[in-house]
Amino acid sequence: MIVFLKKVRVKTIFSTFEPVVVEPLELFYLKSVLNNMNIENHVIDALFKLKEPSAVIPDVVVLTGYNVAENEIIKQAKYYKLRYPEVKVIVGGVHIQGNSDLFHSDAIDYVCHTQSLSTFKELINKIIMNNESPIAGVDYQKNNSTWNISNKVVLETKEFINPDRSFFNQYSHKLRYLEKRNVALIKGSIGCPYNCSYCYCKLLNNGNYIKANYKEIIDEMESIDADYFWIVDDVLFSSRSDALEFIELIKVKNLKKKIIGYLRADFILREKDLLPFLKEAGLIEIIVGFEATDNDELNKYQKATNALDYPEVITLLNIYDIDLTALFMVQPEYTLRDFMKLYRFIKNNNIDVYTVSILTPIKGTQDYNLLKDKLIVDNPEKFDFLHLVLKSRLPKWLFYMLFYGVHVRLLTSKRVWKYISRR
Length: 423
Hints:
Layout: E1 2-7, E2 20-21, H1 25-36, E3 40-45, E4 60-64, H2 70-83, E5 88-92, H3 94-97, E6 110-112, H4 117-128, E7 138-142, E8 146-148, H5 166-171, E9 176-177, E10 180-181, E11 183-186, H6 214-222, E12 228-231, H7 240-253, E13 259-262, H8 265-270, H9 275-280, E14 283-291, H10 295-300, H11 310-319, E15 323-330, H12 336-348, E16 353-358, H13 366-371, H14 396-406, H15 414-422
Helix pairs in contact: 1-4, 12-14
């Protein structure tokens, strides 16, 4: 058997700059499974110019992609069915977990709506054996006509398998988080323990959050020759005991690693005495979802943080020389005053690196179901957090001018200029 593993990508406004370039980690978990089964497999990714090997005919093509690639995934499935008439097409990934029904297309054979690697292995074995019996977590097309809808698979613990790192070893010089180079991704947890209304991640694994095993994370980091490790869990620590465990494990192994991770503002403030120890353990950059600068807006998001605390959080990170990437979100209802308030907050607090997105209801979330009748576009490619999908209060041209105007301050960022000079 031969399997193609493809990351389906759609370009956005910022694709020209590509400030963040990382490995398609989900494919390398699947690659590990296939390697252990002694099945020939090839990763396809246009971002890294990895094309289908010539003169190789796949038996299976696996397609994954973000929400913006929804239509492109179906389009790619049709392309592969035409090019290789006997091929079986599997689609999966985080977007498909919560929206499996959208991929019940004639060109797709299996819709895998679980991130269980055991289920993927079982599916590959059934394809090899030409066995069409149902598998929990996988919808499949029967007799090229009707779809068999399977039950959900809920993981209780994270499966212990490390992703294949052969790609990383070859392409690490191309992987970056802004000015930081040779960045490896690490995934420890599944889902998110918090309840922000806009968040899709909390719905993963049917809403069942699985906390990271910090020993496994550290063991995995120890095995990779990277300059930086980006732990892409939605939150690195949610309790003091989590952070203390992480610090102690790093200390026992005497590891000297540079780590990027996500933390909430309330955690940083509550456990501020741990910041010097976290810095010593290698946490050199923290990504913080501030979202908004006033509590009325945060309450709408069910964020459960206090905007009045944000300046102190920024000051604390500066004191301990920990880099900050601040995440903000603007609403379609924003007025000129709202945009100016956000800009002043960024300026007054000397935030060097930040992102601003447009509030976008994602398919599968409660927000999407509540707002879908108010959507002004239905093209998935526009749901990239950089386009209005709901009607704005301001004229559209003015909204976009102010939205991109908030980004202008990034031109004063030392880290941005360091990144530009390296390009």
